[in-house]
Amino acid sequence: MTDLIQRPELPDGAPEAALEEAVRHDSLWRIRWTLFKRSFQGNWKLFRSNKVGLFGLGIIAFWGLLAFLPTVFFATGYWTNSVYNPVTGLERNPPTVEVTLVAEKTDPLTEIDLRDVLLDQRIPQDLQIGETFLRPLQPAPPSARHWLGTDPLGRDIMSQLMHGARAAFGLGFIAATVTVVIATFVGSVAAYFGGALDSFFMRLADLLIMIPALAVLIVLGAIIRFELWHLALVIGLLGGFGGTAIVLKSQALAVKVKPFIDAARVAGGSHSHIIFSHLVPNVMPLSFLYMMFTVTAAIQSEATLSFLGLLNVKTSWGLMINLANTEGYLLQGGTYWWLVFPAGLAVTLLAAAFFLVGRAMDEVINPRLRRR
Amino acid sequence: MSRPLLEVDHLVMNYRTDKGDVSAVEDVTFTLHSGESLGLVGESGCGKTSIAMSLLRLVADNAVFKSGEIRLEGTNLLALTEEQMRQRRWSDISMVFQGAMNAWNPVYRVGDQIREAMDLHFRPRLSTAESNDRIERLFNLVGLNPAMANRYPHEFSGGMRQRAIIAMALSCDPKVIIADEPTTALDVIVQDQILQELKKIQAELGMSIIYISHDIAVIAEVTDTIGVMYAGKLVEIGPTSEVFARPRHPYTFLLLSSTPSVTGPRRKLAPLEGEPPNLLDPPKGCRFHPRCPWATDRCHTDEPISEDVGGGHLVACWNWQEVPEIGTLIK
Amino acid sequence: MSQPLIKVDQLSKLFPVSRGMFRKPIDFIHAVDGISFEIAPGESLGLVGESGCGKSTTGRMLVRLSDATSGQILLGDSQGTDDLVDVAHIDDSDMGKFRRRVQMIFQDPYESMNPRRTVFETVSEPLAVQNIGTLHEREERVTAMLQLVGLTPPVTFLFRYPHELSGGQRQRVAIARALVLDPSFVVADEPTSMLDVSIRISIMDLMLKLADEFNVSYLYITHDLAVARYMCDRIAVMYLGKIVEIGDTEEILGNPQHPYTRALLAAVPVPDPSFKKPDVQILGGITKAINPPPRCRFIDRCPFSQPICEVEDHPPLEDKGGGHFVACHLVEKTA
What we know:
- The complex is a heterotrimer.
- Chain A is mostly helical.
- Chain A has 14 helices and 2 strands.
- In chain A, strands 1-2 form a two-stranded antiparallel ribbon.
- Chain B is α/β, with parallel strands linked by helices.
- In chain B, 30% of the residues lie in helices and 22% in strands.
- In chain B, the strands form 2 sheets. Chain B has an 8-stranded mixed sheet, sandwiched between helices. In chain B, strands 2-1-4-5 form a 4-stranded antiparallel sheet, with helices on one face.
- The mean pLDDT of chain C is 87.
- Chain C is of the alpha/beta class.
- Chain C starts with 5 loop residues before the first strand and ends in a 9-residue tail after the last strand.
- The chains are: A mainly alpha, B alpha/beta, C alpha/beta.
- The B-C interface holds B 43-44, 157, 159-160, 187-193, 195, 214-218, 220-221, 240-241, 244-245, 254-256, 258-264, 266, 269-273, 275-276 and C 50-51, 166, 168, 196-202, 204-205, 223-227, 229-230, 249-250, 253, 263-275, 282, 285-286.
């Protein structure tokens, strides 16, 4: 009888010839790259079918673009540093508003001059009833020159928002990478070797989970000059040795008992071979998922700390809200919406976007969650 | 001859998927008489479990009945409303699901779980005394100590759990029991005990049993009639002794030739080459032709029609006369 | 007589039944309890028994996936000339050499391959981790192996992932991986039990063919006596950590002596409705051997038990004639 072993179809015109060529002439890395591309295409197809995930990815791309735009604007001269610098920029010709004093009133209870309350103290004290003066409007509402208006110090909100996106991405990336590299390694090693090593790392993780992260960050912010990358590192270490390590360890444990680990041992594989060639690659998808969640957490922590003014950072979304608060505009968010909403929305959207992408990735990684 | 209890008449069932329709059950016809036991044998994915689920109408959401009928005492089950069907499930047709012995809820007593099944189906409900009495009789019937009814599932061994599952399937006096791989996860000795028990119970209660198994040897031991399924089609059906003595379909022949046995002369087995087809796109003509050593041109184009080769032994093969006597080595 | 390939002597494996964190375990499951057997070069031994009888644990000890509690495993070479090596005392530097000679095929074709590695990576892994050959040489070797196990043309399989293969194809890959180092001894742990019947025989035939070509001995672990009959020259029947009967396959099946073997054999379904099975009674169900008392292991289920079975320790394996060993007080010598 003839050999009729039926072969399942390979995805999209398999690049077998290229691979065959690669084995004969090239390194294992090129083979891996080709295979990676192949599996990436497959996974992308799956991811693409998830609308929520695509939406999240769209938001991330949108903020990515915004984070990049200032470079273009400054380079092309569309923006000048003196006006649009997010920290030192100043709009020297703000729009003005005509103020006419119609009556002088004093609050009967507190005897406070209501001029001080209703407008601000920038009204000349010698202004008489019926007189008009031109008050520079700072913060100014959105205009063609300042798309999202200016802040109380006369700086461009749009520019701050864009630079804030940079900070958020940088922070998120560092925090997530540190978390996941540590957690994947700690989780895999603890699961593989077990025993005292496992106990040590897991008790350490328990300890770190018990520590209220925000409280620690606040204390740290109060005693040291707390830079953005410090925050990234602290979030990364707390997550990497803490909760994420536990999650990835349980995943590694599930992988460790699979017969292919035994098969690798029988093949003669060393501990490091088994950990790095078998355990880690199978934990990796979950690592990436937690990377997304860590970014979300990092962005939120940054916003909180900056809002509390504990972070030594020049531009960030949290700081923008902080400024609105310290200058007394937070409770008038309805009127001075451009001071509060763009930054608040940015934090919410980007944090949510990474979370949504994480959820969608979960579906790619975890076939059980897939819809039929 | 009296009217059969259960008739499956030209049943066609597909699963709708993103990649197209999977032809899971294709034009399957068989009948089951009262007190009879029928075995459906085939490899995984051949459609035997799909048929079982169709009989209970517990098919997956994406299953579509294209045509055909399933008649229980003359009533077409496929035409019933969901509520009517719900009433018939368990009390008319019940099932021992594959792997059901691991599906006991660990936090409830086994007896209470059986009682729950009875409460759902007996109208009017049984009183506690009646249901206790019934559980006791059921446990005795399947060879379990009735005192075990007050125990939790983890206190049962695998074989005992499976016996309790059978007790649950029997609890509403069904006319037909479908046993889907009833002993697959069990050790041989326990498997043998349970199969003997089932045979005994069937003789005592006189109900019909449909056995579904991948193991042709198990089917050989417990059934009167055997149906062999391949790729969604019933390729051969007939009295068990007849089919085993003179398999007429090449697939049955090869399946029997490739089943090792502890009895008889030690012989070289004939392997069945290749693998079952993808049912998203089954082969044209006879679905077995790519693996069939006797395939002719006609098999590539025309679907074989079931033909009676004598004594209710039906074969769907153009070249059944070519299939040699069992025990003959091919090649 | 020439040296055996594998000589197992009084091999035991106890698993502690955990008793809290700091207390020393007092209760042990005697998974494998002082078993001894030999396998000659090129010969295949079937290790048969129900789940929990210790057959898989024995296999794992033979490939050093698990260390024996006591007893010896001695490994000879395929010509039967060299001295025997104690498997338990192979140090790290000689481990590679041991791995080249002893390999394993696992039960579950779906789980015994890393889903993120290609067929090429899987099959070449033993070569890669032991630094054998260049990438090019490995590729040639893997291609040749795939050809041998019937995955043709090999090039189309090299870069498949396990999920792109059927169960039978995966098991062929697993066989290729086990044989790529040209071992002399392979432990096969139920390699066909998860496959469909129609594929089972072709995998078994392939293993038989390759055993011949590579001069490999198998320890074939199975619960299925019919499969053991097809694959093995000799059969050992295990019950609760003990070998109760061992001998040539046809002798064991045709003339079973131990009550357990008889019960096991009688319970095997026979694909022949006209066959009248012998009615052999066996009591109860299988238990676990936790701190078993010194008496016959089978006594609780044996319908023939006598006072001697209760008083004396588990009977040793005795030759009842023609290399047919039985561990039962009540079986008389026949030759």
